[in-house]
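Field reference: sequence -> structure
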Amino acid sequence: MSGANADSIFIRAASKSNGITSVVLGVLGLVVSALWLSFLPEWLFLAGIFITSAALVCLLIGYFKIREPEYSLEIAKDYITYRHRLGSWRIHWDNLQRADCPRVRHGLEHVPLQTIGFKIKNYTDFLNTISPRLATHLLMEQRPLLMQGEDENCASGSCYQQSMFDDKHYVMDDGTTIKGIKAMLAHRMVELRKRLGFDIFISSSELDRDADEFAALIMKCQATRNAAPESN
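Structure field:
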C-alpha cells in the first residue's frame, strides 16, 4: 500500500508484505516442532524434521522481508528515489525522459516484461547518486534482461558475454572518466537501452500496484510537474 504526504508519494514493495507474519509463523513452527520431537513417538520423527525445516524457511523469508526499507520508492517534487538494503539511486525529474513497461517480441506478439524501465537523459547525475554495493547488485539482478533483446545472430547466447561485464573505463557526459563497478553499470545501461529502450529497471515486485498503473502514475506526475510553471 502506498502512502503520501504534502510533498511525496511513497511506494511499498509488494515483496515486503507479510514479513512479520512469516517470522511469527516461523517461531510458532519451531515451538510446535520442539514439542513434537520431545513428546511424540519416534515414528513421527521425520514429520517433526519437516515442520522444523518449514519453520526455518518462514523465519528466513520473514527476515529478508523485514530488513528491506519500509518504502522501495519515493516520488517527490524534484526526484524519484529507489531504496534497497544495499543503497539507493535517484533520478531527478529534469533528467527523466520517460518511464514505461518494456515489451519484447515473442512470435507475432509484443509481451510486456514484469518490470518498469526508466530512460534518462544523461548518466552523470544518476551514477553520482548510486552506491557501489547497489550498482553491483543491479549488474547481477538485471543481467537476464540482456537476453530479452532481439538478436537473430546470437542463437547460442555467447555474443552477450562481453556486455554482461564490460569493465572498460566510461566517459560521462561532463567529461569525467570513471572505472570499476560504476563504469560497468554505465556500459550495461548503454547496452540495455539498445536492446530494450531503457537504462535502468525496477522489478514489479518492488511496487504496490500493477506495472502499467505505476508507469501511468509516473507519467501523470511528470506531466503535472512540466505544466506547473505554466500555471504560475
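Note: The chain has two domains: 10-67, 95-231.
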